[in-house]
């Protein structure tokens, strides 16, 4: 059996950049010929994922992001150097957040060629010439972001589609005006009707997919937040903190919700910082604060139940809401009230515009001054 040192470090490094995978051609260039590959597979050190593609660390536990990378690269390596990652697989390679945990490998081939799907890899035919631009990505190719979004959005479902669009706008991967371009591209595609309500739900102020999912859960339950990224200040204007979601209360205060991600909030220093910030917010007397994690999200889980109970008979009435439908949910309320419209002198907002036009800098400020 070959020793582990028989596999060149350069090949292992390449595999780490390709979701743990290498092609037969790449292995041969590194000096690992067909017979040695067979021995590596027989010994369990490598596994064959599909014809001519190998996992060089099959026993290694991979994160969700790494499994998505593996899926995207599986399609590229399986169909050779001309293959182009498209749809959700392309979004993985562009580094977009908000995708489902499982992303199907999808590729297209130049010249309008169409080969049969195999081993879970979808081969999509777009005709000749390709109706979208392509960029080189490592040993493969990838559809450029606006076209990859247009290919993926009709297949993602509304929940993940909104999260993906929130993410690319917030991080500047797609300029604000690019959203209308993506929408026009989607309207020409099969499945466009299933995501017709997605566009009005996009709000790049969401700072993570979890925040997007929490907002959508509340909207679907008829509890749309009145604002996002609500800033709380002391009586002298000192910044005390910012909350992900906010609802105005009848007494002029706010119900605020924070969505905690494990990576960000579970480190000891983050826990200490969060505790101090929470104490400062509550000490204003104008805030009720709720904390949730990913496990609390979902149509009938703790976030929706807790927010509904906290707002019962205590929410400040606002203008009427437009009821629309979203795939996978009952009809829900949309077009939440801009928090600068109530005339409350203790609150201020830089903008009361709709969700799509908010670029991430608009926040509502909550003063600690009592009336």
Q: Could you walk me through the main structural features you see in this protein, from its secondary elements to its overall organization?
A:
Helices cover 33% and strands 19% of the residues. The strands form 4 sheets. A 6-stranded mixed beta sheet has the order 12-11-10-9-16-15. It has a 5-stranded mixed beta sheet with strand order 6-5-4-8-7. A 3-stranded antiparallel beta sheet has the order 1-3-2, with helices on both faces. The chain has 12 helices and 16 strands. It has helices spanning 9-17, 24-29, 34-42, 64-78, 87-93, 145-156, 158-170, 178-187, 209-220, 262-265, 268-282, 302-311; strands at 21-23, 47-50, 53-55, 84-85, 106-108, 122-124, 134-137, 140-143, 227-233, 239-248, 254-260, 287-293, 322-324, 332-334, 347-349, 364-366. A hairpin with a 2-residue loop joins strand 2 and strand 3. It is of the alpha/beta class and 371 residues long.
Write a brief structural summary.
The protein is of the alpha/beta class and 371 residues long.
Strand order of the largest sheet: 12-11-10-9-16-15
Number of strands: 16
User: Helix count?
Assistant: 12
Helix content bin: 25-40%
Low-confidence stretches: 319-362
Biggest sheet descriptor: 6 strands, mixed
What structural class do you assign from the helix and strand content? alpha/beta
First-to-last CA distance: 79 Å
Q: Report the order of strands and helices.
A: HEHHEEHEHEEEEHHHHEEEHHEHEEEE
Indicate the mean pLDDT.
84
- How many whole angstroms does the radius of gyration measure? 24 Å
Query: Strand portion, in percent?
Result: 15-25%
């Amino acid at each position: 059996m070959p020793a582990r040192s028989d596999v060149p470090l350069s090949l292992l490094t390449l595999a780490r950049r390709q979701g743990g995978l290498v092609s037969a051609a790449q292995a041969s260039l590194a000096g690992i010929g067909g017979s040695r590959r067979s021995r590596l597979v027989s010994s369990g050190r490598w596994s064959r994922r599909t014809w001519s593609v190998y996992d060089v660390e099959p026993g290694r536990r991979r994160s969700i992001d790494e499994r998505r990378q593996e899926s995207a690269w599986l399609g590229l390596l399986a169909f050779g150097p001309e293959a182009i990652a498209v749809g959700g697989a392309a979004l993985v390679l562009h580094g977009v957040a908000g995708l489902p945990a499982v992303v199907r490998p999808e590729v297209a081939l130049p010249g309008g060629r169409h080969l049969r799907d195999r081993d879970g890899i979808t081969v999509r035919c777009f005709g000749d010439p390709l109706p979208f631009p392509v960029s080189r990505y490592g040993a493969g190719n990838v559809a450029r972001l606006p076209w990859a979004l247009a290919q993926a959005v009709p297949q993602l479902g509304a929940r993940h589609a909104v999260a993906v669009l929130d993410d690319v706008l917030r991080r500047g991967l797609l300029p604000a005006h690019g959203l209308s371009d993506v929408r026009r591209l989607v309207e020409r595609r099969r499945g466009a009707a299933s995501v017709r309500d997605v566009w009005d739900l996009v709000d790049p102020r969401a700072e993570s997919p979890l925040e997007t999912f929490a907002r959508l859960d509340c909207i679907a339950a008829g509890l749309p937040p009145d604002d996002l990224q609500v800033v709380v200040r002391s009586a002298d204007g000192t910044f005390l903190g910012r909350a992900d979601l906010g609802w105005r209360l009848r007494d002029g205060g706010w119900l605020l919700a924070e969505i905690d991600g494990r990576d960000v909030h579970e480190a000891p220093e983050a826990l200490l910082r969060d505790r101090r910030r929470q104490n400062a917010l509550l000490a204003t007397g104008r805030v009720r604060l709720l904390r949730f994690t990913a496990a609390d999200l979902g149509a009938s889980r703790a976030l929706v139940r807790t927010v509904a109970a906290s707002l019962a008979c205590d929410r400040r009435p606002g203008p009427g809401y437009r009821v629309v439908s979203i795939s996978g949910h009952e009809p829900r309320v949309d077009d939440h009230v801009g928090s600068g419209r109530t005339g409350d002198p203790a609150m201020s907002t830089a903008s009361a515009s709709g969700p799509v036009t908010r670029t991430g800098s608009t926040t509502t400020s909550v003063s600690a001054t009592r009336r």
